[in-house]
Amino acid sequence: MTIPIVYTDRHLLHNPPYEIYDGVKESYAEKAKRLTSIMAALKKNGFKNIIEPRKFSLELITQMHQRQYISFLQKRSEGLKKDELLHPSYFITDTYAPITNGTYDAAVSAVDVVLTAAELVQGGEPTAYAVCRPPGHHAEYKSMGGYCYFNNAAIAAEYLSKKGSVAILDIDYHHGNGTQSAFYDRSDVLYVSIHADPADAYPYISGFVDEQGVREGKGLNKNYPLPLGTNDSQYAETLNKALADVRKFNPKYLVVSAGFDTYQHDPICGFRLTIPFYEQMAQSIAELKLPTLIVQEGGYNVKDLGDIAVSFLKGFKKSE
Ligand code: Q9C
Ligand code: ZN
């Protein structure tokens, strides 16, 4: 039996035509084709255990997001015509998360995907992969931003935390400001992130080493910023430190916020990781021997995204 892959094509409902960068319209990097690339490569490489998500109660979203925020996104989304794009003035942190007619439905579908995969892991599956979009880790309690609307990984971690402690390992190129803030004062959820130095990269205002958690969560938020140009061996060294943090915390579950925008040919990012390195990375993560939920975050090289995902999953297969 191969790793269960949870996927639905409801994400296709969200496909904004452009984003605004420094006042200039650019093509939207978070394309629907990203998941098409991943699913095609997985099927081609023998990952055939593909599962449709089931519907979960919307109440699970309210544990991580304000009710007014959720209904704002729903109403604004459903009020738009098919080709309209809205950059709202409220509940948003930047110009990278515009609302379209299908945005709310697609964002809810991503939550269903991630919770279906979380349920499998909770039921004893060693590893499950949630192939979801829009991504989630920049979404905060009441704000969208950075291509994210609902924080899929945080919602899944919250769900799993009802049964035991959870470590979240965020390997997306960008710091997961939304996930960090969701668990910043919690003792039952560790957040560890490796990302481009916020002095150089989005989200600019969080992801620094001195953000270490507060109150019961003090010491349970770990940021590992790395310089632009980081390569495989430099990354591996930092990954080992992050994995040591997870081991020390000794959680019941692991959630991996898996962004593949650390890839050397990512069109909007600045690390230099190679495709075979993702397998190595996954093998080190799998050595933790923890029930692991993999949640898709960023990764924008549509052509190579599938090969990166296949390489990554191969590293988990070896530990089965
Ligand atoms: N034109 C995630 O990877 N910056 N979000 C875009 C380039 C926004 C990334 C600037 C990056 C957001 C989930
Ligand atoms: Zn990213």
Task: Describe the structure in your own words.
The chain is of the alpha/beta class and 320 residues long. The protein is 34% helix and 14% strand. It has nine helices and ten strands. The strands form two sheets. The chain has an eight-stranded parallel beta sheet with strand order 4-1-5-10-9-6-7-8, sandwiched between helices. Helix 4 (103-122) packs parallel to helix 5 (152-161). It starts with a strand and ends with a helix. The chain binds N-{4-[(3-aminopropyl)amino]butyl}acetamide and zinc ion (ZN).
Search tags:
alpha/beta, eight-stranded parallel sheet, binds N-{4-[(3-aminopropyl)amino]butyl}acetamide, globular, 14% strand, 34% helix, binds zinc ion, two-stranded antiparallel ribbon, 320 residues
Which ligands, by name, code or SMILES, are bound? N-{4-[(3-aminopropyl)amino]butyl}acetamide, zinc ion
Q: How many strand segments? A: 10
Q: What is the typical, i.e. mean, pLDDT?
A: 97
End-to-end CA span? 10 Å
Please write the string of helix (H) and strand (E) elements: EEEHEHHHEHEHEEHEHEH
Low-confidence stretches: none
Report the biggest beta sheet as strand number plus sense, adding barrel if it closes: 8 strands, parallel
Number of helices: 9
What overall geometry do the principal axes of the alpha carbons give? Answer: globular
The SS-based structural class is alpha/beta
Amount of beta strand: 5-15%
Helix share bin: 25-40%
Gyration radius over CA: 18 Å
Spatial arrangement of strands, main beta sheet: 4-1-5-10-9-6-7-8
